[in-house]
Amino acid sequence: MKRKKPVQVMDFRGTYKGGGGPDKTILNSAAQHDKTRVNVLVVYLRDPEDKDYSIDSWAKSLGIRYVDVHDRRLVDITCLTMLLKLIDRHGIELIHSHDDKTLLYGWILKILRPEVRIMYTCHLHSDYSRKDFDSFRRYLAFVVRKKIQIFLMKQYRKPVLSVSGFTKKILVEDGLCESDVHVLHNGIDTDWWQRKNGKPVLRNELNFSDHALIVGTVARIDQKHKDLPTFYRVAATVIRKLPDVRFVIVGDGHGKLIDEAKKMVSDLGLKDIVFFTGHRTDLLNIYSSFDIFLMTSRTEGLPNTVLEAMAMEVPVVSTRVAGVPEIIENGTTGILCDIGDVFSLSEGVLLFLEKEDERKKMAFNARKIIGDCFNFKKRVTFLEDYYEFLKK
Fold this sequence. Notes:
Helix content: 40-55%
Radius of gyration: 21 Å
Number of strands: 13
Number of helices: 14
Order of helices and strands: EHEHEHEHEHEHEHEHEHEHEHEEHHH
Shape: globular
Largest sheet: 7 strands, parallel
CATH topology of the largest domain: Rossmann fold
CATH class of the largest domain: Alpha Beta
CATH superfamily of the largest domain: Glycogen Phosphorylase B
Strand order of the largest sheet: 3-2-1-4-5-6-7
CATH architecture of the largest domain: 3-Layer(aba) Sandwich
């Protein structure tokens, strides 16, 4: 039986520039919620120095209730004061946090407004060891950060939501009770994510030849987490056999990261092979331009980009990272390889490049599994049930 009065929810997030997978989930959920059950106010923490921020225009295009608040430091008292005013003004009953900063702020806001419930969705909880860091100091900072994350999650209403079974496993290993974590896989709107809805624009934009095949990825420029050096080495391996193939990275990064990435590509002699488009919002066109999607990440939650590529009938070659094996059945709906395994990743890419029938078969299977198992509307309905449960 539905509540007569909808639950007043603050969906709470901080991000950079145009956002990523969690932002797609949050903004599209707000647009699709049954407003007789849930009334969502999307609130974003915004770095005032971020001149390329575009979440606000994205939210406006979806017609959702949206506010962003400037956040200037680790704990910004002015920001917290503004958030308290929003809670009071909109009668917020439940705060749903999605990242480290809103995990911290949600807890502080709960202390200041004890009647408000707080819940958390964990989109990523990295599983690194000492060997992954170039200094003990960096490793120690990582360990301390994780302990703080777990402490804060324990202050939230249970269960904490996790976007993959792998992420749940790491959360439990780091100190949460297994019964206190529930897996809610990401989902996407397969009516929207269809190849026919996009236009393959990249070939013309980048002046590729008509017969060139495109291997692409959509990722934040992050050499460590996304392991882009492995992406470059795969490109170098593939073009030795098929010189007409081109590789495209769609995404941006903080500070000088994209300049550093371009320099590395140039130093490897791949300047005319690997191309960077920067941040793009026309992702339907981007995926429609790709012949193959390649992901080389070392850490993920349950990447929306893989879901999107599969829904767009782009065959995927990916590292066997985090929740990706929960999406892809190796050899049936995509190809999975070990992290950093340039040889296997290259062989997977070459298989799809050289065998069009294999590309088409894998693309068909991938599209079907996304429609059957990662339906966004089902995810939205679950959240509505969960909000009502937590409000009791």
